């Protein structure tokens, strides 16, 4: 219980880290040359700041809320299994744990490029919207509204397709993890029945 409360406190500290990241972002922003603001519109800058802060906060929260308690529980479970039940079961659990972690690392490497492409496309879309707003009237006068809509649609579709590709790959790896867990359970029951 104390450990859980401690991790919750640490997770709240992630919000402070987000605050510090935002402040650092703004400090760097005001030091930029004027050409930076010509190349990047306010919507794009705000989007980058928001996504960066959210990413830092989520990373810290996952580490403190999920990873640390999970690692502690796993360690205690392994010790208990080895001491109370059987060393073979500990070896099966550790082997499957290594398989599980390997699948997670591979999943992250394979799917990361789609996530990064989706984020890049989203930022490009935000930049396009910001630029379009500033020149919307001349485009209306020139009859180019349809072109603007098509370009926005293509960019938004790119965001969607990359997020979908990312999700599909993550789901595929989740299926592999499910198979790994099934094999773990089968190994566990096989060892348990041979010990009795």
Description:
The chain is mainly α. It has six helices and no strands. Helix 1 (2-30) packs antiparallel against helix 3 (42-85) and helix 4 packs antiparallel against helix 6 (145-195). The longest helix has 51 residues, at 145-195. It is elongated. The mean pLDDT is 76.
Biggest sheet, in brief? Answer: none
Count of DSSP helices? 6
Fraction in helix: over 70%
Order of helices and strands: HHHHHH
User: How many E-type strands?
Assistant: 0
Report strand %: under 5%
Rough shape?
elongated
How are the elements arranged and paired?
Blueprint: H1 2-30, H2 34-39, H3 42-85, H4 87-134, H5 136-141, H6 145-195
Helix pairs in contact: 1-3, 3-4, 4-6
Keywords:
single chain, 196 residues, mainly alpha
Short description:
The protein is mainly alpha-helical and 196 residues long.
